Amino acid sequence: MGDYTKAATQLDNLADNSSSSPDIVAGFLGQAGQAWTMVNNLQFAWRDQTRALKLIDKDPSLWIDRAVTLGMAGQFWESIDDLNKALDLDPKNVDALVYRGSAWRALETYDLARADINRALELQPDHLQAHLESGNLYRIAGDKDAARKDWLAVIEEGDGTPAATAARDNIEKMDVESENGNDKKMEEKTRKN
Questions:
Q1: Most CB within 10 Å of its CB: which of 18, 101, 147, 174?
Q2: Where is pLDDT greater, at 107 or 1?
Q3: 91/117 Cα distance (integer angstroms)
Q4: At what angle do helices 110-123 and 94-106 cross, to 10 degrees?
């Protein structure tokens, strides 16, 4: 129903009062963490995700969820550490590769970002977020045609998704910047997004 704060609070209460197995309690905490993330309460999300990982540390999705929270908080090195743990457990986890690629981009370590995104696209050629991120990296490298190709693939395959909206926005910004002769400003802006 969209009341993520209430959902998170109830899931926290379930976890605190449950006599279920550790994997069930970790599931409550993981879901609570996701709900806290939806309302941008990153402190509570991190708290619950960390509690879940103390109960079970062999679930890559829990490491990925906490990595996303850390990335949203701008803690990219810590996010990469968690994504490395997820990839140790599941080396072919495309979401972990894409998120790690995004974190590397935020840290301006573009060669490692490109390696992760290329690996993600090898494993899942139609992954929307991987194509969106690939377009961002091409734009930073100054290859507008390749960036446009990736972003158009996102729009075509994922029309109506947040990734498609971001791809459309990126193309529009790139076109406006090119028309105004401000390609350098766009490259800087893309690096930050």
A1: 101
A2: 107
A3: 14
A4: 160
